[in-house]
Amino acid sequence: MKRKIQVVICRVCSQGVPVLDVDKLAKTAAEAPYVGSVVTVDYACQSKTISSIVEDAKTKEADRVLVVPCSKKDVSPSLFQAYVRRGKINEFLIETVDLTNEVILPHREDPTRAQEKAEARLAAAIARLAALEPLEKHEEPMRTKNLVVIGAGVAGLEAAQVAAGHGLHTILIEKTDRTLKAPGVLLSKSRLLRAKGHGGNFELVIEAGEKEETLECAVIVVASGGDWSQGKGSLTRSCKEAMPLFRLKDSIDSGTLPSGPVVIVDTPDPKGSTMKAQDFAWDDALDLAMIAKRASPETDVTLIFQEMRASGLSELTYKEAAQLGIRFIRYDNKSPPTIDEKDSKRLIVKDLAQDEVVSLRFSTLSYASIPANPDNIGIADALRIPISLDGGIRRGSMQRGPVTTPRPGVFVCGSAMFPKPEAVARAEGKAAGILATQFVASGTVEYGGAVAEVTPEKCSACLTCVRTCPYEAPFIGAAGKAEVRTQLCQGCGMCAGICPSKAIDIHNYTDEQLSIETEAYLRGGF
Amino acid sequence: MSERRPKIVGFCCEKHGMDCVTLAARSERQYDSSVRLIQVPCTGRVDGIHILEALENGADSVFVLGCLEKNCYYDTGSIEGRKRVEYVKGMLAETGIEPERVEMFNASSSMAWKFHDIVSSMKDVAERLGPIRPGGGDSE
Ligand code: SF4
Ligand code: SF4
Q: Given CB atoms, is A312 within the 8 Å cutoff of chain B?
């Protein structure tokens, strides 16, 4: 393999408020192995500049490029396009180094060390780039432009309408036989049984009325709905007036909350182990506790929980709630809160923090709980998407978007995740409809590139990768060795990190490539 | 001669991990420049070998920074990452090297303060323990 690197340093970006000596940086880069040319430019994103640096790459016969721009995310896509189209450089051999955010901004008060670090960073990136291999992406046409929406409630209908408006063929799967005005096809009294394939080309088996039908689709929106639990559990059985959070909210809003202490428990079934409140319920519980406390500061408000799951910004809410004087009591399900046998307006609970049994008088007892649509279990199982402890469809990382599941091509909206007001469900349905449209817009599924690959001779068929991969990409093939369904692989590398036989590796993040980079980086000055 | 500077290596996921780094950079606050970041697609990619290699190549302390466990871009990636870190810690302890040289952290892309805290705590460890001495920290 030829290895000739062009390094492009953007002066404007790299100099910052003159922290770095760009000429010195360029000199260091030029002396590094495999570097064929170093160009320093002003405004690497200007079209004139782009033409000239791509030209330089061509004449110097560079096969890989390192761009040092302002910030990885700010580089103009036309720069990459020009390299790939005109410069014939493999897209996996173009790398960027974000000196601004990694070095200049956080170390600008110490330019000497910043320079040293920038040079080391560049050397490491060059070493890594030299070790990379060119990769190909593949395309598979989508066989249909069908969108299947599971559930014709508020969110599902909205998703279907939006997508249909953009030209998708929508198929709604609805378990009831309600008459509905819906775009496309409405399958009543039907439910999802099984699913095969991947985003872009799914094959579903649907039970519609009496018969089973096979259905092809490109994208799926889960809008199976769900409801607030009316709360079945030890607590609600022994106290009939205990109310779910949303009812507590109603009575606060309407001013009908009886005066006297308010106690909120994290679940209607404190003895059980599976019905702990979900994170959002904690946010709600905290919010409501604060509203109740603010409305009447002299009222005792107590939150009783097994595990406080207030994360991110809700941690601040937690703190604020504590400052307001809301009392927190932690218990575990071995000694759950129970209603006092002699006084039905008293709750007895062992406070783990204080290691003492407390008896709390209450006027209002409320609980957080959201067991969702029981159908979710079957849907999640068929589509291979995760489900929360409470039975809601669990969305993927927020970075992927609030209505996405971890599985590409499967979106989720509305109360299928957890109960929501109608307006929110509708907004989410709209979002899911738009994302589904966007997903099928190109008409092709792109896959491959920096994905996992198995070296069959090394594989001991231990199944570790099969069990670890969140996307079910690896499987044991006919030869009795692991193989990767490239269309499903997202390139996270978890399989590579865990394979005990070192048989599976991920392109351009191989063990060898990572150690070359680490070694080069640590060789530089500190 | 200037005093010896600590060497810190961070394996950082390209998702929330690097977002957290970028946000820290934009927060105007400075952090110690002894930290060297290696980007991985997901902290689940990190293998014990990578951490050990960094230590072998002279790092005094190594951290792994991934998404929050409930909000990992690759769903279970940062949970896997933590397992690897725990495994390496166990291994280090057995060979007589201080396990606190290696640490796992989680952050979301909105936690600007987090990265400064990570760097300063790993720097403390690096300065307190100094370079790794063969045969273990306590024996000399
Ligand atoms: S983890 Fe490695 S050895 Fe085990 S099945 Fe997968 S590729 Fe094969
Ligand atoms: S790289 Fe990630 S998505 Fe791909 S097979 Fe491995 S674990 Fe699965």
A: yes
